[in-house]
Amino acid sequence: MSVIADNPAVVEQPTQPPNRFVLLMRTRPETVLAPALLVVLLFGWEYGVVWLNVPSYILPPPSSIVIALWRGLSEDFTSRAGYWLHAGVTLYEVLLGFFIGSGVGLLLGTIISQIRILEATLRVYIVAIQSLPKIALAPIVVLWFGFGLTSKVVIICLLTFFPLLVTSMAGFKAVDHERLELMRSLGANSWQVFWKVRLPSALPYIFAGLDMAAVFAVVGAIVGEFVGAQRGLGTLILSMNAQMDTAGTFSVFIILALLGVALNLSLRAIERRLLFWSGGSQRVIGS
Amino acid sequence: MDAAVADREPVSASPAGAQSAERGKMIEVSHLEKTFVTVRNERIHALSDISLSIAEREFVTIVGPSGCGKSTLLKIIAGLVPATRGSVLLAGTPVDRPRKDIGIVFQNPVLLPWRTVLDNVLLPAEVQGLPLGPARKRARELLEMVGLAGFENKYPMELSGGMQQRAGISRALVHDPKILLMDEPFGALDAMTREQMNLDLQRICLEAGKTVVLITHSIPEAVFLGDRVVVMSARPGKIARLVHVNFPRPRSIEVMGDPEFGRATSEIRRLLYGNAGPDPHFIPAGGGIS
Ligand SMILES: Nc1ncnc2c1ncn2[C@@H]1O[C@H](COP(=O)(O)OP(=O)(O)OP(=O)(O)O)[C@@H](O)[C@H]1O
Ligand SMILES: [Mg+2]
Q: What is the DSSP pairing of strand B211-215 with strand B179-183?
């Protein structure tokens, strides 16, 4: 900058500074273009469905989705017709299932990877089970645990357990050999090696597992509620769908999306604090 | 008497000069063999019949072509890699596991990226349960000595390769080990910093009476720092020659201009390159060749 300021030829030029919009378009065009694209798409959708005579139970215009959303949110917190109660139930299931499932997965993955024979023995089974579509067990779980909270939490645990088990095992396996050699050269005991090197080294993998688990947790809650429940956003979607209230269904979908984004953002916030040192792809996507 | 005397035979357990003969033996390597078995079941004969006796407070440098087993030898002495045959005694005790009175500088700095520079340097003190107050003071002094004052709270990723290496050197010294094993510690440094670090290292080791084994690719550095220079040959790694360097200590950089210094370096150069190598009469003006 000082080079330009010191140069009288540049300073004396009477050109106007480019206005802020032009400057923004030149430096970071995506900050203008991305919202513009959204506006264009929404307008296209709004007038497209009218113009093409699409019935609103097939595809409602965005305006009626927003109205349905507003109506749902303006209901009382305890009203079964409103969104708050159901969203609260689903959020509770998601958080409970996510913490228990990924917590147990992380714990077992950590223990298994510290004991070589255990890891070698179980590896085949874990890989095999990991590739199964566990969501298909949802009806059986509901049969076993009923229509209440428990069955949903169990389904979510089932879905979030394996990502953490597998990623933490991979993380502990991938610890840099030289770091372990360093600790060994200092005469460190296994406890010190674990806390000072193994666990921090495995953290990027563990967070990749948590990111996955967060998505699975929401999916698990909704599917569990589809199969059998009295409350939750999944039941709301089912009843709205039965009444061909497509705008309502879309508005619940927005709530779900917000829930997922909030979960993801909280994870990223923790990740940024703990993994500031890791220049991995997660940070690039997160920032 | 000549300042540099070259033994004609690959000697085993030769006395390390007149004055060091009275001192105790600190490191005794005898008939060491190392064969690696790779995952594809190939055998790599890395070290062959290495015998070397290092006195207390002696400074031994090792030069040799890449892949001749220098790092392997160092790790066996450190107890990090088991020997295939032969033995290593440290102060009379066989080495079967890493010891706490050894400081190692690895060929890669191996700093932990989630720790600040200061916390990295403090790692040995932490692991070995030394009182952290004095250790922190010493760590700061060491960081200042290697020219990293003001970088205590930076993270390794914010440092250049040479700076990381210097942090690694501070870490090796923080618990005040009797034995210092250094694997190309100054490889990533510019010539000027390198000479300064050579002087500092010499001073520390002299003051604290450390026994040092230092691997380097720079022949002048090996001669400047070493009481003896171990010249190794490749495949399988053997000791080709032990070159004694008898300049009095502390040595100043001017030693490098001494004709004896030039004779020692060209002797080593001839051993390493054979006759087809670079000009054997080249007299180094100081600094490294690598
Ligand atoms: N863990 C290992 N497994 C198999 N072979 C190895 C292993 N470590 C070293 N080697 C082999 O042993 C030989 C000596 O390796 P070493 O690292 O000791 O060489 P070096 O003299 O330190 O080389 P440089 O100067 O390049 O660092 C090489 O041929 C290498 O391939
Ligand atoms: Mg090496």
A: parallel
pTM: 0.81
Using the mean position of ligand 2's atoms as its centre, give its distance from the Cα of residue B71 in Å.
4
From chain B residues 87-126, the ones with a CB under 8 A of any chain A CB are 97-100, 102, 104, 106, 108, 110, 112-114, 123-124, 126
How far apart CA A148 and CA A78 sit, in angstroms, is: 18
Mean pLDDT along residues A148-168: 94
Element (H, E) at A224: helix A199-227
Q: Does residue B253 sit at the A interface (CB-CB below 8 Å)?
A: no
In a domain, A151, yes or no: yes
Structure confidence by residue, pLDDT tens digits, B118-156:
999 999 999 999 999 999 999 999 999 888 999 999 999
Domain span holding position A75:
62-274
Which CATH number belongs to the domain containing residue A66 in this structure? 1.10.3720.10
What percentage of chain B has pLDDT greater than the value 90?
47
Q: What number of C-beta contacts closer than 8 Å exist between A and B?
A: 51
Ligand 1 shell residues, CB under 6 Å? B 36, 38, 44, 46, 64, 66-72, 107
Q: Are residue A190 and residue A89 in the same domain, yes or no?
A: yes
DSSP code at position A13:
-
Q: Is the pLDDT of residue A269 over 70?
A: yes
What structural domains does chain B harbor?
Answer: 3-101+177-286 (3.40.50.300), 117-171 (no CATH)
Q: Are B253 and B286 in contact (CB under 8 A)?
A: yes
Could you tell me if A21 and A98 lie in one domain? no
- Dist. CA B162 → ligand 1 center (Å): 22
**Assembly ipTM:** 0.82
CA B47 from chain centre, in angstroms, equals 17
Structure tokens at A15: 């050109």
